[in-house]
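Hey, quick one: can you model this chain's 3D structure?
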Amino acid sequence: MKYHTIIIAIATLIAGVNVGHAQAAQNLPSDVSRVIAQRDAEIRKINQHCVIELERLKISYTKRGDLKNAVLVDNLIKEMKAAHATNVIVGRWMFSSQGKNTPYTFRADGSVSGIGPVHGHPFNARWRAVGSDIEVFDGAGKTFIRLSVAFTGNVRLLAEDSRGGMWTGKKIE
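Sure thing. Here's the predicted structure for all 173 residues.
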């Protein structure tokens, strides 16, 4: 049990390590940015391994009937995935669908701006992490874009808009 507590503590620490550094990295020399990118890649690998192990523990606790710990581990997994999604999304992105390219800027404060793909008008909205997904929502709280963020740290996203349109996104920082 002590081993599991240590894994959970380390996982919680690592999940939030690089939140918000994407904005600061924009002003760094390229060689420094390269080192930080390598560090982030290693952290993603550790986090991915940790989530896999935590999923195994959750299954084990569930099979043993230890629902208290199964729920605890499940909540930790959700927190780690949301932290990962937050770390990945902050920055500048180009989304594409059917020959249309639409730029978006996601900020660490939860704001997002871009050019609307349908009418071509600038917009400002908010985003939030929901599990390993990112939702972009309007002032009324209505989600109009859902982004799927792979826990592998890929910088490509799949997005679905409120009209069922599918988009791919590439980070352009």
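One thing worth noting: The helical segments are 2-15, 21-25, 30-64, 67-89.
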